[in-house]
Design a protein that fits this description.
The chain is of the alpha/beta class. Helices cover 58% and strands 8% of the residues. The chain folds into two domains: 44 residues, no CATH class; 220 residues, no CATH class. The protein is built from ten helices and six strands.
Length: 289
């Protein structure tokens, strides 16, 4: 994947060294005691927590503590920025073709844990995720190593696929899909809700494929067949069936929330081969119902 000549300038927010979990740790036991006392005295929990975190952050800065980035992380930051910017360009063009204005998401890079607006505390153990509340994608750069070492999804395009997938959820947020599916899931039993979740995730895979189809047309990123193969390998690596087989030696289809490896590859490939935004209606696919 040739990306070094790609344009940078996406909405990238670097919160490494400022994660919510780290801030709270700086406060230590004394900070927790202060928080509990404030709660017993009738204080606002959110306001007290915010004050505690601000104080511990200021204390860390006063002591000269600053996050030290590595050359590897700097390269990943540049890569993520180029990929994010290219998704901005692709989806801006697609939305313009439909007479709409694309609202760009923010990519927040963090380590350990971080606060979100409406999605609770984000943690690196969760993997990359999109939060509709603040329209941000959250990514711990260590996930790049996890992709190759734990999931066997090697190559730079594997991480590009992951970012494009999360941008796919942002597309769903903009067009109202996420709000609709979340409302529907709250009224369904667990099995039906899981099926709806699978459809939602597979559509995001499709949108990632649509981005891959158009990216060379609107940016200086160059892809090869091997890159697309890496993307499909990444999609297969995070299939529910494969993950469950690795974790517990058996699979339970009724508990799937993201789709099988075969399904994820199929929808990513369909998006890549067609590049047609209108063909990603996973919710009408009878095989998923």
């Amino acid at each position: 994947m040739k990306w070094q000549d790609g344009r940078r300038g996406g909405n990238l927010e670097d919160k490494r060294g400022m994660s919510g979990g780290q801030k709270l740790t700086l406060g230590g036991v004394a900070g927790v005691i202060v928080l509990l006392i404030g709660l017993f005295m009738g204080g606002d929990p959110q306001q007290l927590l915010q004050q505690l975190q601000e104080q511990t952050q200021q204390g860390g800065e006063a002591n000269g503590e600053a996050y030290q980035s590595t050359p590897k992380e700097d390269n990943l930051i540049a890569f993520a920025d180029v990929v994010l910017t290219s998704t901005d360009d692709v989806w801006t063009a697609i939305f313009e073709e439909q007479g709409q204005v694309y609202q760009k998401p923010t990519l927040t890079v963090y380590n350990g844990s971080t606060e979100t607006a409406g999605c609770g505390m984000g943690r690196s153990a969760y993997g990359p995720f999109y939060c509709p509340g603040d329209q941000k994608i959250y990514l711990d750069l260590s996930f790049s190593d996890e992709l190759s070492q734990r999931y066997g999804a090697k190559g730079e395009f594997a991480l590009a696929y992951v970012i494009a997938h999360e941008v796919g959820h942002h597309i769903q947020q903009l067009v109202g899909t996420l709000a609709e599916t979340n409302a529907r899931r709250s009224k369904l039993n667990e099995r039906a809700a899981n099926k709806l979740s699978v459809m939602t995730e597979l559509q995001a895979d499709f949108y990632a494929g649509v981005w891959a189809h158009h990216v060379q047309r609107v940016s200086n990123i160059e892809l090869t067949y091997e890159d697309i193969r890496d993307g499909m390998t990444a999609a297969a690596a995070v299939g529910d069936d494969r993950l469950q087989e690795q974790a517990q030696g058996q699979v339970n289809p009724e508990s799937f929330t993201h789709g099988t490896s075969q399904q994820r590859v199929f929808w990513f490939k369909k998006g890549y081969e067609t590049g047609d935004f209108s063909l990603g209606d996973t919710f009408s696919d009878r095989s998923l119902q």
